[in-house]
Amino acid sequence: DGDVIPGDQYVLYSEGRFNDTPVLIGTNSDEGALFSRPGITAAEFERQTRASFGAHADEILAAYPHATDAEAATAARNVARDSTFAWGTWAWARLQSSKGKGAAYVYYFDHRTPASPNGANHAAELPYVFRTLGAQRGAGAPRAEDTAMSELMSSYWVNFARTGDPNGAGLPPWPKFTAEDALAMVFDTKPGARPLPNLPQLRAMDGYFAWARAQRR
To answer: Rounded mean pLDDT of 179-194?
Structure first.
């Protein structure tokens, strides 16, 4: 806002004006569920998208299938995920990998449970990282697959805190992020490094945000 951070974060990073340190950053698969209105129809989704994204609405609509009301509900959650969280993470990782010396390690958390069958909600990864599964009231005992995921994730995070690199003995390799391959560590039923699942949508968002930045000049 010019007061707390004296300038636009994207511009500051582009100009190399940042604290160059390794970063470990990511997004959850159903992160937008808390931030989108339930019950949206296909027609409402299209109207909202055109009102929000202006000249880039067609590109956004093409990237998020919404032919039925069920598809529109998913699309609305995913637009909220990508516009609020995932694009910023992706842009940060691209800028860090191209402008800095410290590596960027990106994750996509998609561990599903009976309580979250559609994907991982906002902040759902934190109990796994900090080994606090079951600590919340009413959470119940974690399943074996939940405990295994927590052991895996906490190992990566401890390694990163210790050395700036999450990799370690016995862990699936977590490559550094580059703009060319956009590999992330995907935490799902078979954790491993793969291209970001929402990469086409992020590219559509990137076109919109580039246009929005140009309008402010």
So the answer is: 96
